[in-house]
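Hey, sorry to bother you again with one of my protein questions. A protein chain has come my way and I'm curious about its shape. I'm sending you its amino acid sequence along with the C-alpha cells. I owe you a coffee for this, so here goes:
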Amino acid sequence: MTTESLTATGRPRDNRIDEAVLEAARALLAEVGYADLTLTAVAARAQTSVPALRRRWPSKAHLVHQAVFPDDLAVPPRDPDAGLADEVETVVGNCVALFSDRAMSRAITGLLSDLVADDELQRELTARLRDVVWSDLEERFTRAALRDGVAIVVDPSIIVETAFGAALMTVVLRGSDALDDQWRATMSATLLAGLRAVGST
C-alpha cells in the first residue's frame, strides 16, 4: 500500500468519499461559481467534514482543480487501433467536454487567477497534468504516428495547449454553444494538418 493511499491517521483512504466530494464540488461550482464556493459547503453536500477534505485537498484551488480536470478526461481510455486523427479528435473532444460543463465554465476564471498569482501553487497543481498527462500523450501520439507511417517531431503537449486555449477563448468570446460539431471538426483538422506538416519537414 502506498503512502498516497493513506490518510493522515495512517488508515486507507475511502475513495467513495473522494468521489462524493468531487461530485459535490462540481455541483456547487455550477450553482454558485468559484468565488462563492466554500469547503464548508462542499463538506456538507458530500456528508463529510472540512478536516477530511483538507487532508486530501489543502485549499479550495486544489479541490477545484481536480474537480474540473477529472482523470477520465485527462487520461482517457486507450484505443489500440487509433491513428493520429483519432488521437487529435480525442484531445479536441475532451477540451470541448471540459468547457461545455457548467462547473468548469464557472470555475476557470477564478481558478486561473489563483494560479497566476501563486507560482508555487501553479507548479503544484499542474504537476499531475505534466507528470501523467504529458507522458501519456507522448506515448499515444508516438504509437499513432507509427500506425499511420508518419514521423512527428513536435511535442504532443502543444496539441493539448492549443486545443485548450482555443476552446477557452471561444467560450469567452462566443459562449460554450460555439463549441459545436463544426468547431470541433475544424479544430481537429487544423491541428492534424499542422502536426503532419511539422512531421514532414
In short: The CA atoms of residues 96 and 180 lie 8 Å apart. The domain at 1-59 is CATH 1.10.10.60 (Arc Repressor Mutant, subunit A). Residues 1-11 have pLDDT under 50 and may be disordered. The first helix runs from residue 15 to 32.
